[in-house]
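Render this sequence as a predicted structure.
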Amino acid sequence: MINVETTGQATNAAIGNDAKVLSEIHLASKNIAILQRDLSALNDMLLSLKERPVGLKANGTVEEITTSLKKYFDEELNGYTLILNDIVNVLSLFENLTQSSSFRLLLTIVDTDMCRRFHTDINHLRLLCTYTGQGTLWLPDEAVNIKALKSRNTELEIAKDKNQIQQAGAGDVVILKGALHPEGNAVVHRSPTIESSGEKRLLLRIDTNSFLNFGL
């Protein structure tokens, strides 16, 4: 059973309900930081939005991406201002955290399994927020079978103990450390398996524009 109610027992994780917890991603001992949020006030709007053909890619400075977001919501998602405002606020959080000048944003409906095998990203820092649907799965460092992670044999189990698999909640802001981060020690994670059940996820992904990025 996947543990969604994570309370920070994994030593590689910083988890809390104050945005300050995200800054702990800069610590050498942390490779994932999770801001737990309650977006229940937006439930009806989010469920409605999940049934829309959402798809936006934007690149550039925070100002340029914000302009693209506002234009897209005005033309395609008029009436979803509260969600737009939240995305802009999350983007601002990521800018303050990374001090980067350029970003790559994706807002999309996901209905496939995407990266279903546990892996690490070839990037610096990535932000994920699953507004609706199942959140990203991740592993405590001690639960990772390093030999299996490095092997191309997809039959090998990367998670030593499936009971230690963790999962971010809907609405949580998740910062993932990638293999190109100066501290190394990228977090091992994967997308939830949803394709066979017909589930959908409304996903926001933001990367700094200076690095290669793979996977959701």
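Summary. The chain has one domain: 13-208. The chain has four helices and ten strands.
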